[in-house]
Specification:
- It is a single chain.
- This protein has four helices and three strands, in the order βββαααα.
- The protein is mainly alpha-helical.
- The chain folds into two domains: 31 residues, no CATH class; 114 residues, Four Helix Bundle (Hemerythrin (Met), subunit A) (Up-down Bundle), CATH 1.20.120.
- A hairpin with a 5-residue loop joins β2 and β3.
- α2 runs antiparallel to α3, α2 runs parallel beside α4 and α3 packs antiparallel against α4.
- The radius of gyration is 21 Å and the shape is elongated.
- The N terminus is likely disordered.
Length: 148
């Protein structure tokens, strides 16, 4: 975290090098209510449940792959099997990592309820949306592969 004076404003420069005026940060912190704070935590808990659903979906896709794979010797098919097996494993890791990030976010939000958690919360929401979109596309591609 770097704080410096520029053009009579104090800026907080975050990890990505984007400056935010301190008075804006303080205004954001002061504006969060207890109800908003609890809603933020509840939404995180819902995300964890959805992540569990996606983990189950990936495991079902892996089982479909395991039922499909025996006896397949065509080079292109074997490559596809390896590709999807690897992707399912990677996405399970991504789900696990994101679930851990959300748990940490909840812990920090409960520990410091008066600190602004909206920016990290929106960042996590974006990561969830991207991951869910990727998994949906992976599922579609996998079923197209099975139906070849």
């Amino acid at each position: 975290m770097v704080i410096f004076l520029l053009a009579f404003y104090i800026y907080y420069v975050n990890f990505w090098g984007i400056g935010t005026p301190i008075f804006f940060i303080l205004k954001t912190i002061a504006m969060i209510t207890e109800a908003q704070h609890l809603a933020l935590i509840d939404e995180c808990k819902e995300w964890k449940q959805v992540l569990t659903t996606y983990r189950e979906k990936i495991n079902k896709l892996k089982n479909e792959l395991y039922l499909f794979a025996p006896g397949k010797t065509d080079h292109e098919t074997v490559e596809g099997i390896e590709h999807f097996h690897n992707q399912f494993h990677i996405q399970l890791i991504n789900l696990h990592d994101l679930k851990h990030e959300i748990k940490h976010h909840i812990f920090e939000a409960e520990k410091h309820p008066n600190f602004g958690h909206r920016i990290p919360h929106h960042y996590l929401k974006d990561k969830l949306d991207i991951l869910f979109g990727f998994i949906e596309k992976l599922e579609k591609d996998f079923h197209q592969f099975l139906n070849k």
